[in-house]
Amino acid sequence: MLSKAQISLITSLQNKKYRKQHGLFIVEGIKSVKEFISSSYQVESIFYTDDANTKVGKISHNIKSHELTEAEFQKISTLKSPQGVLALVKLPKQQQVEVSDLRNCYNIVLDDVQDPGNLGTIIRTAEWFGIKHIICSIGTVDAYNPKVVQATMGSLARIQVHYIDLHEFISSTDLPVYGALLNGQSIYQTEWSTEGLIVMGNEGNGISEEIITLIDQAVTIPRIGQAESLNVAVATTIFCSEIVRRQLV
After folding, report:
1. Spans in the chain with pLDDT lower than 70
2. Per-residue confidence (pLDDT) for residue 249, from 0 to 100
3. 142 vs 109: CA distance, rounded Å
4. Which of 86, 127, 228, 241 could staple 155 via S-S, CB 3.0–4.6 A?
5. Quick check: pTM over 0.90?
6. Stretch (H or E) spanning 232
7. Who contacts 6 (Cβ-Cβ below 8 Å, separation ≥6)?
């Protein structure tokens, strides 16, 4: 039986303020919950319905588990079509970005990306292409927003997401900085280094002026049709794909 206090706590975690206050975030869906159980994250508790119980598999004795009725689960679910499994996971400690970890590879930098679905897709894309770090501006949407977590389909469990002052960080590194801009060199003609940062901008405004001044090479995806712009998650996928293609040639 769910108490009012438990319902209040879980539903409050949809808000960043309360995620920070309680040090917890929500993971929902059978696949995503199983990914976090198998990761380095600490899963504090799991709530599940009878139908979903067998699909979750073995739950460690260190994780509190609660079986709920369908009606009870509806009260805490963030999804329109709940899968019957929800976990409360401890927020990780914010790790400092070590430039040594960014050497000899490419990593993504996000300048005020706002849409949870976009960030979630970018995290999932990063894992697909073997990118381990995503460095976000303070104004980028929270990676532990339930909509972001859901969109990553478990990839968040394995990708390092950092929130820092981008201007300060980029200014302090000697890594090559590539920026996705409309007036850049074609992505297919760009001379890519063996390492670097790929900067992607805000959905409506692109990369901010203060960050543009730090970019070494402006890069664009050639437009053939009449579309005004590309979705930032789609553009990030194209950048990652081209960089990996060059490395495999």
Report:
1. 57-58, 249
2. 67
3. 14
4. 127
5. yes
6. helix 232-248
7. 76
